[in-house]
């Protein structure tokens, strides 16, 4: 089993070969034990990043940002989980709200992608989160319960699945839920996982949405927060390294 704590960076559609210097700087700055670091670059950077990390002094996992449910075939522009693994990935993010919104992905689609990841032997990071309208309507816990039931496949285990709670309204906005709101959702996710899976207590639960060096420590102090899925602040080592260190200290 990898360390329980996981600091994951989602680079989204950002980064070129020159950005690998940030990964190099991160590995030099974060010689910490006890925290697993994952970076999910755009597909174009996966193999060069995996090679660059292989020469580094600490282990950093590389992940994809999405995969197709099928292993191969006539699906122009898509990438299979097997291809991600071949390019050096050991994780893949599925069900990110940007993909749910931009590509109309349903819970059923997300579950199929998670199954594909597990078929390929890589772990899935399954994203859940309410919109601002749903939070305002007091529907957050219902939405999370529904997404968790629908997006997490029956073959999920603590070893092959990470769950990320990312409120849509907190992504890239600089706004975050209160600590109590994060605690409430993470406790509900844990309860649902324990009720459904024999090893539900072991699934790692990440918080994502405007995590920065300034708020990382207080978020990591919340019960059932095992790490973060970081967007903007994962692009620069100067921002991501303090978040990794805050998680290590938590
Ligand atoms: O969407 C996110 C990570 O997947 C969060 O993005 P930000 O950290 O930029 O808010």
UniProtKB/TrEMBL annotation:
Magnesium keyword on record: no
Active site, per annotation: 96 (electrophile), 166 (proton acceptor)
Indicate yes or no for the key word Transferase.
no
A GO CC term assigned to this protein in UniProt: cytosol
Q: What is the lineage of its organism?
A: Bacteria, Pseudomonadati, Pseudomonadota, Alphaproteobacteria, Rhodobacterales
One Gene Ontology term of the biological-process aspect is:
glyceraldehyde-3-phosphate biosynthetic process
Q: Cite the CDD domains for this sequence.
A: TIM
Residues annotated as binding substrate are 10-12, 172, 210, 231-232
Cite a single GO MF annotation. Answer: triose-phosphate isomerase activity
Q: What is this protein called?
A: Triosephosphate isomerase
Query: What does the UniProt record say this protein does?
Result: Involved in the gluconeogenesis. Catalyzes stereospecifically the conversion of dihydroxyacetone phosphate (DHAP) to D-glyceraldehyde-3-phosphate (G3P).
Q: Which family does it belong to?
A: Belongs to the triosephosphate isomerase family.
InterPro entries membership: Aldolase_TIM, TIM_sf, TrioseP_Isoase_bac/euk, Triosephosphate_isomerase, Triosephosphate_isomerase_AS
Q: From what organism does this protein derive?
A: Paracoccus chinensis
Gene that specifies this protein: tpiA
Indicate where this protein resides in the cell: Cytoplasm
Q: Which reaction does it catalyse?
A: L-erythrulose 1-phosphate = D-erythrulose 4-phosphate; D-glyceraldehyde 3-phosphate = dihydroxyacetone phosphate
């Amino acid at each position: 089993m990898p360390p329980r704590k996981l600091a994951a960076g989602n680079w989204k559609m950002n980064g070129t070969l020159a950005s690998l210097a940030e990964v190099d700087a991160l590995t030099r700055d974060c010689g910490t034990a006890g925290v697993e670091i994952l970076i999910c670059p755009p597909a174009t950077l996966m193999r060069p990043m995996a090679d660059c990390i292989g020469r580094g002094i600490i282990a950093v996992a590389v992940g994809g940002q999405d995969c197709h449910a099928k292993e191969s075939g006539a699906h122009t522009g898509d990438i299979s989980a097997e291809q991600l693994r071949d390019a050096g990935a050991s994780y893949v993010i599925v069900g990110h709200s940007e993909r749910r919104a931009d590509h109309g992905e349903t819970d059923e689609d997300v579950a199929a992608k998670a199954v594909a990841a597990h078929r390929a032997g890589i772990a899935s990071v399954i994203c859940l989160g309410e919109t601002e309208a749903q939070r305002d309507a007091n529907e957050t816990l219902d939405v999370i319960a529904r997404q968790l039931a629908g997006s997490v496949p029956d073959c999920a285990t603590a070893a092959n699945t990470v769950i990320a709670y990312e409120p849509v309204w907190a992504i890239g906005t600089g706004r975050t839920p209160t600590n109590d709101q994060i605690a409430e959702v993470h406790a509900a996710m844990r309860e649902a996982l324990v009720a459904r899976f024999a090893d539900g207590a072991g699934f790692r639960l990440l918080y994502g949405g405007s995590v920065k060096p300034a708020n990382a420590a207080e978020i990591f102090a919340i019960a059932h927060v095992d790490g973060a899925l970081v967007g903007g602040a994962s692009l620069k080592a100067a921002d991501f390294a303090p978040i990794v260190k805050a998680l290590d200290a938590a």
